[in-house]
Amino acid sequence: MALLETELADLATTIGRPVKLMEVCGTHTVNACRSGVHSFMPKAVDLISGPGCPVCVTAQRYIDALIELGRRNDTIIATYGDMLRVAGAGGSLEVARSEGADVRVVTSALEAVETAIKNPERDVVFAAVGFETTAPATASAIITAANEKLLNFSVLPAHKLVIPAMKALLSDPDIRIDGFLCPGHVSVITGGDVFGPIVKDYKKPCVIVGFGANQIMEGIVHLVRQIAVPEAQLENLYPEAALSRGNPIAQELIDRVFVPGMAAWRALGEMEESGLDIRPEFGKYDAVGRHGISFGEDREPPGCRCAEVITGRCKPLDCSLFAGVCTPIYPVGPCMVSSEGSCQAYFRYRRHELKSPMARVRVEV
Fold it and tell me: Of 37, 5, 8, 41, which is closest to residue 349 (Cα–Cα)?
């Protein structure tokens, strides 16, 4: 780590201007904070968070739709745990459950299918969130439900695709990004080649890395080396898991069940072909049509800067609610709710950097 730190400092001096790098993975965000990677970086090199937390980029309208479904007496909502406390316009799934809604935490999409099998008299709706990483599991669950001819299982899809989000960020003149630490988990599924257009069309360096402190730091150094030349390239420092063409079995599952479609993102709005719609041949398992769901408008919690955090416009420490009004116990926005959220990572590992002593007092009391 010491050699990498020295080289990074030398490269930063050579470049002679501030450099902004973005990690597009919630696990990278958490591990970088936990391991203290930021403390090894010179002031001129800044690592900012991107839209890599699946819960954080889920639009509020999706939460509202889940809550509405959960309040139906004949419906069970099956969801991953991180979704429970994300606030919608009228509360959260956790609040709805306390008021009588049948909301159950599952650890896999297939567990949601098993819930439907065990409760044939109830409709089970699975909240399918996540990037390309979790989409194959959702596809497998839908195929299993079809094979079992289940009539009481459906999926409310909110899967997102990483590349459209990266392109949207690079197309925004208010956001400056010099290079990307590409998501390791997603790359295992999609393959590293999918990031080629970011390099070719936008001239931005992309480096795929694993999740250890040394791996993240090495990825940062490789990015800054390219910026110093300057020459944008795609580098894969995670070849043991992320092959150039990815996982063909997982890709086949996704293609069999889903087709790219319009998706609503927190902070980024609606983007064409940035999400995954269920194909018509599996339409009976699409909760949107099956339950006549209509999505409302998105309204961010007052004062919450989560949307700015996940687009690299600010850091959690810049939000006036952080660590005072907004904490993991009483979260305001999804970035403090999710275990992969930037705000929760900063709260756990970097809140000592707060400039305001009063904010630290509120936390400690």
Answer: 37
